[in-house]
C-alpha cells in the first residue's frame, strides 16, 4: 500500500485546526454588525459608518426581574444586543437568581461557557456524554467552565439573591433549554416519542406540555 506523502498530512492538519474554533477569525480590525441586513456564515455585514458608542455596552449592569417560575433572568450581550461583537467570537451574559432560583438544564451548541459568581452561592453542574455529573457550590469571586455543547445548570443555594457573569467563545452561542425544547416545541414532538423516551404515559406528557406551551 502506498503511504501518503508527509506534505499532504501536514496540509490536512492545517486545514483541520481552524475548524476547531467556534467562530471564524475576523479579517479586519472590526466589523460592527448591520442588524438590518441578513446574517452570513460568520455574522452580519459590516456597518458602513461606526462611532465610539458601537464599542461600549451597559446592558450587563441593569437589575433584572426574577419573578418567574424558575426565579432566574438573563441579560445577554451578544451580537444581537451589542453589534460591536460581530465577527469577534465572544459574548457575555448577566444572570440573576432569586433565592432558590434555577437556570434549568440547557446547552450552548456553539460555545464553551466560563462564568464567575458576582454575588451569592450557586450550585453549578454539567453532564458529560457518558452521563457523569461534575458539580460544586461556588461563591462570590469563584469561577466555573462548561465545555462546549454539554448540558449544564445553575441553582441558587444561598439565602439571598445570586448573580453570575458568564462569557462564551461565540458571538451568538445559542441555547437549547431541555424542558422547553422537549415539551414546548412547535410543532410538538409526538407523544409517542416522549412517552417511549421517558417511560411514561400520555397524561403525564400532556401535563408537561401544558406547562411549557408557548
TrEMBL record:
Binding site for Mn(2+): 106, 108, 113, 152
Signal in keyword set: yes
CDD domains hit by this protein: cupin_OxOx
Amino acids binding oxalate: 93, 103, 108, 113
Disulphide-bridged cysteine pairs: 31-46
GO molecular function: manganese ion binding
Keyword Disulfide bond on entry: yes
Keywords linked to the UniProt accession: Apoplast, Disulfide bond, Glycoprotein, Manganese, Metal-binding, Secreted, Signal
Family according to the record: Belongs to the germin family.
PANTHER family: GERMIN-LIKE PROTEIN SUBFAMILY 3 MEMBER 3 (PTHR31238)
Protein name, UniProt field: Germin-like protein
Species annotation: Brassica carinata
Amino acid at each position: 500500500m502506498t503511504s501518503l506523502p508527509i506534505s499532504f498530512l501536514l496540509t490536512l492538519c492545517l486545514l483541520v485546526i481552524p475548524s476547531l474554533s467556534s467562530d471564524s477569525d475576523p479579517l479586519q480590525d472590526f466589523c460592527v454588525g448591520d442588524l438590518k441586513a441578513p446574517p452570513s456564515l460568520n455574522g452580519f455585514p459590516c456597518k458602513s459608518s461606526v462611532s465610539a458608542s458601537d464599542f461600549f455596552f451597559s446592558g450587563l449592569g441593569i437589575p433584572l426581574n426574577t419573578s418567574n417560575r424558575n426565579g432566574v433572568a438573563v441579560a445577554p450581550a451578544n451580537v444581537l444586543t451589542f453589534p460591536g461583537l460581530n465577527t469577534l467570537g465572544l459574548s457575555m451574559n448577566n444572570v440573576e437568581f432569586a433565592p432558590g432560583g434555577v437556570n434549568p438544564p440547557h446547552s450552548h451548541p456553539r460555545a464553551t461557557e466560563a462564568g464567575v459568581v458576582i454575588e451569592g452561592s450557586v450550585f453549578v453542574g454539567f453532564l458529560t456524554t457518558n452521563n457523569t455529573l461534575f458539580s460544586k457550590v461556588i461563591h462570590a469571586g469563584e469561577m466555573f467552565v462548561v465545555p462546549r455543547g454539554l448540558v449544564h445548570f445553575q441553582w441558587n443555594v444561598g439565602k439571598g439573591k445570586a448573580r453570575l457573569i458568564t462569557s462564551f467563545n461565540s458571538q451568538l452561542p445559542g441555547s437549547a433549554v431541555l424542558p422547553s425544547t422537549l415539551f414546548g416545541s412547535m410543532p410538538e414532538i409526538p407523544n409517542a416519542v416522549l412517552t417511549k423516551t421517558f417511560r411514561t404515559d400520555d397524561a403525564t406528557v400532556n401535563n408537561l406540555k401544558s406547562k411549557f406551551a408557548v
